[in-house]
Amino acid sequence: MEALDSRNVVLKGRRLIVNEAYSLSDQVHRPRYGRTPRVDITQRLYVAGLPYSATETSVRSLFQNHGLNPVEVHLPKDRQTRRQKSFGFVAMSSESEATQAIGALNGSLVEGRSITARAATPRPVTTT
Fold it and tell me: Is 111 helix (H, G, I), strand (E, B) or coil?
């Protein structure tokens, strides 16, 4: 508690800022920039190795070919080039469906590229 109260903690020449820890559920369900997650983080998948030509529709159909129904598909774009990045996030309706998707798609080939599917981890919450 003393570290929380002190603003002048220096470690090896660098100022150390100590904040209170939040539980994982508080971090996940806290709104960031006005956007709140629609599903629990354990039901959200990180899919890497996608071809640059992938679209939300093609990723959704990839999952549907395995009998899965994604709730949400998000494929980020590079801010400078506006080109599709080679990864995305897919939200599933349940943990069991997310596990089934990982088993079905992890290591599979899409347009000659091996994709990786795993549970997404939340971004660390930064406070200033």
Answer: coil
Q: pLDDT tier at 122 (50, 70, 90 boundaries)? A: confident
The Cα 111–Cα 32 span in angstroms is 35
Q: Three-state SS for 69?
A: coil
Cβ 112 vs Cβ 81: under 8 Å: no
Contact 62, 110 (CB under 8 A): yes
91 CB-near residues (< 8 Å, 6+ apart): 38, 39, 43, 44, 45, 70, 71, 72, 73
For 38, half-sphere exposure in the C-beta direction (CA atoms, 13 angstrom radius) is: 12
Q: Please, what are the domains in the chain? A: 35-119 (3.30.70.330)
Residues 55/60/62/65 CA torsion (nearest 10 deg): -150
Q: Which tokens is 38 given?
A: 């629609």
pTM, whole model, 2 decimals?
0.64
